[in-house]
Amino acid sequence: MKLPAPLFAGVLVKRYKRFFADVALPDGTIVTAHTPNTGSMKQCAVPGHPVLISPANDPKRKLKYTLELIRVGDYWVDTHTQRTNRVVEEALRHGLIAGLSGYTVIPEFKIGSSRIDFLLENDDEKVLVEVKNVTLIDGESTASFPDAVTTRGQKHLRELLEARQQGYRSVIFFLVQRGETTDFSPADDIDPEYGRLLREVVAGGVEALAYKTQVTPETNRVHQQIPVVL
After folding, report:
1. Predicted model pTM
2. Average pLDDT for consecutive 10-residue bins of the chain (230 residues)?
3. What is the 3-state secondary structure (H, E, C) of the chain?
4. C-alpha angle with apex 91: 214 to 144, nearest 5 degrees?
5. Do 115 and 174 belong together in one domain?
6. For residue 129, with 0-12 CB atoms within 10 Å meaning exposed, 13-18 middle and 19 or more buried, which class applies?
7. Is 3 contained in some domain?
């Protein structure tokens, strides 16, 4: 999908209070950008990393910029979690994800007291897909999730398993935003309960898929499937 334009280059000074990031522009001006990511952004929100920010269109908005991309090593990383589902939705609608093509795509499907990111439906089956944004690496090339303890993520895994037991096909989908990755594993050192649950629900029939993106200053698109190693 296309990213906002124009984007302005800067350098991250600091990220604080979760939703704020001070950015130094090339002329030395410091601006504060909104950070649409509630996670720790470990490895990404590092002072000195190059960033790209977009100007806000709403003149009434307090923060006049939004943090869009962070450069980590040789790759741009999309930390904008409000865009994650749209990237996946575009790939689903264009049949770019193996095993998940040929379905009607329904975002934000309500099941019980919760909402799952997508319901995929055809004449033969219904598939629930819950998406997680991955920006962390363990070692040199293993994508890892989560980057902080996530009771909400644990809840989603339990819901997917329950839906599987009710007859749905259930998928936990890890959208990996780190271009150097070669495989995916849960971050057991950060949230061991999430890793335990992930293995449990997969053993119970939930499918775990991981795809990495290809991110440029212009676009973010689902690019390549990588193995999930449990």
Report:
1. 0.96
2. 97 96 98 95 97 92 96 97 97 96 96 90 96 97 96 95 96 98 98 98 98 98 98
3. CECCCCCEEEEEEEEECCCEEEEECCCCCEEEEECCCCCCCCCCCCCCCEEEEEECCCCCCCCCEEEEEEEECCEEEECCHHHHHHHHHHHHHCCCCCCCCCCEEEEEEEECCEEEEEEEECCCCEEEEEEEEECEEECCCEEEECCCCCHHHHHHHHHHHHHHHCCCEEEEEEEECCCCCCEEEECCCCCHHHHHHHHHHHHCCCEEEEEEEEECCCEEEEEEEECECC
4. 55
5. yes
6. buried
7. no
Domain CATH code at residue 60:
2.40.50.580
- Tell me whether strands 183-186 and 142-145 are parallel, antiparallel or unpaired: parallel
- CA proximity to 31, closest of 4, 53, 48: 53
| Structural domain includes residue 100 | yes
CA angle 217, 84, 222 (to 5 degrees): 65
Domain that holds residue 28: 8-78
Q: What is the pLDDT of residues 89-117, one digit of tens each?
A: 999 999 999 999 999 999 999 987 789 99
Are 144 and 94 contained in the same domain?
A: yes
> Same domain, yes or no, for 104 and 200?
yes
